[in-house]
Amino acid sequence: MTLYLRYAARSDRGLVRSNNQDSVFAGPRLLAVADGMGGHVGGEVASKVVIAAIEYLDEDDPGGDMLEALRQAVDTGTDDLRHVVDDNPDLDGMGTTLTALLFNGKRIGVCHVGDSRAYLLRDDELTQITHDDTFVQALLDEGRITEEEASVHPQRSVILRALNGMHVDPDLSMREGRPGDRYLLCSDGLSSFVSAERIGKVLRSSASPSEAADQLIDFALRAGGPDNITVIVADLIDDNAPESSDGAPVVDGAAGNNQGQRENTGDTPAGRAALLRPRKDEPAEEADDDEDSQPKGTLRRRLIASLIAVVLIVGLLLAGRAYVGSQYFVGVDGADVVIYNGVDTEIGPVKLYSLQERTDYQVSDLEEATQVDVREGLSAGSLTEARQIVARLDDKLLPLCPDPATSSAPSPSAAGPSASDPGASDPSASGSAAPTDTAAPNASASPTDTAAPGTGSAAGSASASASGSASSSAGASAPACREGA
């Protein structure tokens, strides 16, 4: 059975930004959202370039390998971005996210880079089908922060991947289409300010994609609308439906010169809120050109300086994360020797390492100096190197402790009568020889291992004393041996 898309797309600059850096394309075969970044102009250009590079996918039945078609389109967009920067060096640093769906009537290819999102509503259950390429999402994946902490994290908008003229492998996946499926593509201007629960309610209750798209934009504006907001809502319907789509492809946002930007009439709560405050980069009152020229120049320099700082911070974060992920060290977890991925450092509550694998060694089985080294962490440049360090611990193991059964058995010389023992030939004396009062003084008074003649217990005491003395001289802080398996 062949399915069709009925879709609606909306893009709004929000209540704070003076321009829209998002771009959107929605057609019978291709749905795509791009969220540009890189300054007042760079973000617009980046999202436009990428949408222009992939929109040809909507013109023909993709057939064949849809994921390969998406990959090639992304590569084309990357090349186009690089050429634009080569021709306009002042745009260096611009980039864009991309979330796109390619449809062939039965199956859907999903392409994703960045923090724009795609959701699927199926059987009244909402599922996010893309994975955010953000610093905060990486912390979530590693279990270092909770969902609640992520929602207020100061770096939640820092993305780790974007299309910026350098090669990027997009996340690609295939999905089977079903009649009644409803898809949502959106920029983070929606998902960062409207909860997933609210999004799900709107998608379930709206009779059409157009109604759902309008409501989602309104909810983002009610939340303050600090960012550009772009959404596509698309339903999969069967060929017996009276209406298969909303018509021709829709191009909006920066790519469509904001032709779909709604005028603010003040007849909604969000609209009335917008009328009460000026945009950040628009003056609240009119002034003559001479008065405005100096403040605008100062503001422009501050914006450029801020942008440079953000780019540097993001670059450092990316470089730092790549370095941390490539490092390993051998350390301890409780009583065990283990291998960690990362560096042995903590920044506040965030640990820059995670458990990679456990070993068969226990810390107490190692020589004292090696125990200290392992507790302090033995650095390695790769997992293979870390495993080699662990293998070398065989040379640092304590000797096995003697078998208790063997060590406690009396030796013939200790148990048997001494030739010099006058009571050795008297069987009745053997029971009283051990506890005699004369043996103990002889054993303790002599600094040597020599025991009083005929006192087997004294010989044992002297032997124990000598053994204890030797053990003390070896150091009490580490055991002299390790237990066998």
UniProtKB/TrEMBL annotation:
Its EC number is 3.1.3.16. Residues 256-267 have a biased composition (Polar residues). Its cofactor is Mn(2+). The keyword Membrane applies. InterPro entries: PP2C, PPM-type-like_dom_sf, PPM-type_phosphatase-like_dom. Residues 243-296, 401-485 are annotated as: Disordered. The chain crosses the membrane at residues 303-324. Keywords: Hydrolase, Manganese, Membrane, Metal-binding, Protein phosphatase, Transmembrane, Transmembrane helix. Residues 401-441, 450-485 have a biased composition (Low complexity). Gene3D superfamilies: PPM-type phosphatase domain (3.60.40.10). Residues 6-236 form the PPM-type phosphatase domain. It comes from the Bacteria. It catalyses: O-phospho-L-seryl-[protein] + H2O = L-seryl-[protein] + phosphate; O-phospho-L-threonyl-[protein] + H2O = L-threonyl-[protein] + phosphate. Residues 283-292 have a biased composition (Acidic residues). GO terms for molecular function: metal ion binding; protein serine/threonine phosphatase activity. This is Serine/threonine protein phosphatase PstP.
